[in-house]
Amino acid sequence: MLVDPKRNMDAPPPALKIVPTIYPTSPPIDTMLDRFWQAGAELERVIAHVAPPDKPLALLEQLGPSPFPRGGFPLIGFLATTYDKVGRYALERADDSEPYAADRG
Which conformational region is residue 71 in: left (phi greater than 0), alpha (psi within -120 to 50 degrees), or beta? Predict the structure, then answer.
């Protein structure tokens, strides 16, 4: 490993150098623990339209075959059923005519 003889060894390595950014910095998390899980006003501007996927189990297909030995419990079948039920639940709760509202129960 090559070491730059001019580099101050007490200074952080160049990869950890703090660089200026155009984005505002977040306050330290310990100063906002009491409101950490609150979404804030920005969430009200988010519009989400829920629709069924073109190919229902595409995500599971992308995962490929199970890496676990086939046992008495059909893991992939369970995941497919769960994925389908969660998707149906989301579609039933969504009303595509209005944007998602954070206050929906």
Answer: beta
Long-range contacts of 39-43 (CB under 8 A, 24+ apart): 39/102, 43/102
H/E stretch holding 17 reads none
| pLDDT tens, position by position, 4-45 | 666 667 777 777 677 777 888 888 888 888 888 888 888 888
- The pTM assigned to this predicted structure is 0.45
Question: Distance between CA 82 and CA 89 in Å, rounded?
Answer: 10
CA distances from 11 to 4, 16, 17 (A): 12, 10, 9
Interval 52-79 mean pLDDT: 83
Q: Which residues contact 59 (CB under 8 A, 6 or more apart)?
A: 83
How large is the greatest C-alpha to C-alpha distance in the chain, in angstroms?
Answer: 65
